[in-house]
Request: fold
Amino acid sequence: MNNIALQAINLSFAYFNAPVLREVSLTLRTGERVGLIGPNGSGKTTLLRCLSGVLPPTQGEVSLDGLALRRLSRQEIARRIAVVPQELLVPFAFTVREMVAMGRLPHAAPGWQALLRGENKTDRRAVEAAMLATGTVDLADRLFNELSGGERQRVMIALALAQEPEVLLLDEPTVHLDLAHQVEVLELIARLNGQRSLTVLAVLHDLNLAALYFPRLVLLEGGRIVAEGTPTQVLSEETIARVFGATVRVQPHPTADRPHIIVLPG
Reply:
């Protein structure tokens, strides 16, 4: 994995002169699966928005395959970078298949031509492949708003896959899910990363799940990267105590070559 898929160089961002990101430099190589961790308010979601081109940085640069993101159109970016948000509010009664098909919009002709063209064979193939990969084929005719949290999460990932992106950015993909569905979603992400060589960056709160499913972790604190590397390198007792303010014991995981964090009371 020598090719750089997505890169931020000296990236800073501020909301109304209040700094959120401070000189962040991050390189994602093609096919990497990286977990982005940090306490609340550390800038994780803002970093994802800058990396996807939604927010223009106050200073610094984001590049995609060596091309400056600011020089690409929103449609060009959406063809190559897919974002799965924490939640997706859908005010209308769309079926699952209709939701997933929305992932093809970046590939449509601009303006009214897209409406006239409709869905073509390539679109249908991409939608079916995305639903098959995420196990949502059986949900195709159900209404998105009537699904469980785990089902909705899989549909949102299917929508992103229908874009046929090179990079997948996920903002807390396990939020509001019970443990079984958290594992299901992370297994799905790991499988897609391996099968499709997708470059993946996911924001996560659960440090044990981050350690278990992501070979590389990036730790944000106060808008800066304060540690990055393997889970063993990043998740030390001292670092967790300093950054998260929690007293923990870090032990080897019983079945995987990863650290396992035990929170100590008081």
Q: What stands out?
A: Residues 4-263 form a domain with the Rossmann fold fold (CATH 3.40.50.300). The radius of gyration is 19 Å.
